[in-house]
């Protein structure tokens, strides 16, 4: 493995740790465990693209949550730039939540 590959993997893990500090204000579970993060892309220049969704298209945090995700990811030293893309394909459902999140919300 080249140094760049290791760094991208490590950076991906750091990004996930940051995402786990961001919570949906209506649900006491972080957005990663909630299944709102569909994918995290990191290129060799350490530019990050996050593909995420919201619980509903009319989500009250539709304006602020993606901005919070971008800003928090940009605080990681190695990240050169970050952008969030919102998608509703596939639409979010409780099936996307981790077991931990379902337990937390009493769904198991």
UniProtKB/TrEMBL annotation:
It holds the Pfam family FeS_assembly_P. SUPFAM superfamilies: Fe-S cluster assembly (FSCA) domain-like (SSF117916). Residues 13-85 form the MIP18 family-like domain. This is DUF59 domain-containing protein. It comes from the Bacteria. Signal peptide: none annotated. It comes from Robertkochia marina. InterPro entries: Fe-S_Maturation_MIP18, FSCA_dom_sf, MIP18-like.
């Amino acid at each position: 493995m080249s140094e760049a590959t290791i760094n991208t993997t490590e950076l991906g893990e750091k990004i996930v740790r940051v995402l786990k500090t961001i919570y949906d204000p209506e649900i006491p579970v972080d957005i990663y465990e909630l299944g709102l993060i569909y994918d995290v892309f990191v290129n060799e220049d350490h530019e990050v693209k996050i593909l995420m969704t919201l619980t509903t298209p009319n989500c009250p945090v539709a304006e602020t949550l993606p901005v919070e995700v971008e800003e928090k990811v940009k605080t990681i030293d190695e990240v050169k730039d970050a952008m969030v893309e919102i998608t509703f394909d596939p639409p979010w459902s409780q099936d996307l939540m981790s077991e931990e999140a379902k337990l937390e919300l009493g769904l198991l």
